[in-house]
Amino acid sequence: MHCQLFITCKDCGYRYLALLYPFLRINFGQSQVNIVDQWLPKNVYCYSQVFCTDDYAEIMNLSPDLALNMKNILPEALVNTSQARQASFLAGRGCALSALKMAGDAPRATIERTARGLPDWPQGFVGSISHAMVEQNGIAIAVVAQSNEHQSVAIDCEPVFSLAHANEVAPLTASMSELRLGERLGFSRELWLTMVYSLKETLFKLLYAHVNCFMPFEAAEILSFDVVSEQACLMLNVDWGDLPVGQRFWLLVKDVEIGEVGRCVVSFGEMLKNGNGLVTAKLTG
Q: How far is CA 196 from CA 63, 206, 239, 254, 264, in A?
């Protein structure tokens, strides 16, 4: 494997991506995994990429200089973690940098982390990153929007649970009414519980920028799901900062097949600002 190749991505113009992130399965011109960008709002920019931790491990072993470059990008907390965790982090950051460029940001080497370990988005932008792994293969997705229009955006990607894992997480994730909703809709237990988990993760990411805290799964309830528009309506069961109990949000959710990663659930949500800068919930779609 030749690791020192510089390539200019015609999508984003970042020559360094090929150097710092060569374990991404990049085929420029068809480099994005177009699983979500076709159904996102036009003013939300998305970049996604599959990656392989076996490639990452080979690069780290064969190219000490390149390995050092990658280590310098990793936050200190991740330097001694598994190669799968490092590859997943770097893939997510690579997608975020590309999405930022698409949204109009100036080229930058990396994205810093907040004290809580979250992405510290550059001024003028909001964003969200998600990554998922199935054995040695992974998918990373980032969405970015301009902060003059958006309070926040959120994306989440989850490989569909096995039945055993679905049964394990069910008591922590879904209420009895949510389980009955999935049965009425005709979803398998493993797919529906993956959707419930992903939708709530997306909502929590979406609201964090507004209320600066995370909440347990029971703090929100899925009231309905439209199989045609693929929109789910979620309601707050508790007050979240100035967001009252009963506040409703509509999120998009897709059941997609992603190459080597397999079947996944991808969820998306956005919070807009109105002309006065106030946050409004929006029916996405």
A: 42, 15, 20, 12, 13
φ/ψ (deg, to 5) at 182: -60, -40
Q: Which structural domains are found in the chain, ordered by start?
A: 16-148 (3.90.470), 157-281 (no CATH)
Report the distance separating Cα 163 and Cα 167, nearest Å: 6
> Distance of CA 170 to CAs 163, 196, 249, 283, Å?
10, 9, 22, 27
| Distance, CA of 192 to CA of 201 (rounded, Å) | 14
The list of the chain residues with pLDDT below 70 reads: 1-37, 57-72, 274-285
How do strand 248-258 and strand 262-273 relate by DSSP bridges? antiparallel
Q: Counting runs of H as helices and runs of E as strands, what totals does the chain give?
A: 7, 9
Q: Among positive and negative, which fits the CA dihedral 144, 145, 146, 150? A: negative
Residue 17 has a pLDDT of 43
What is the C-alpha separation between 279 and 272, in angstroms, rounded?
6
The candidate with the shortest Cα–Cα distance to 154, out of 143, 167, 165, 146, is 143
Alpha-carbon span 63 to 252, nearest angstrom: 41
**129-182 pLDDT, tens per residue?**
999 888 888 888 999 999 999 999 999 999 999 999 999 999 999 999 999 999
CB atoms within 10 A of CB 246: 10
* pTM reported for the whole predicted model: 0.83
Task: Please classify residue 7 by burial: count the beta carbons closer than 10 Å to its beta carbon, then call 0-12 exposed, 13-18 middle and 19+ buried.
Answer: middle
DSSP letter at 43? T
Measured distance CA(49)–CA(91) in Å, rounded:
7
Nearest CA to 262 out of 161, 159, 129, 187 is that of 159
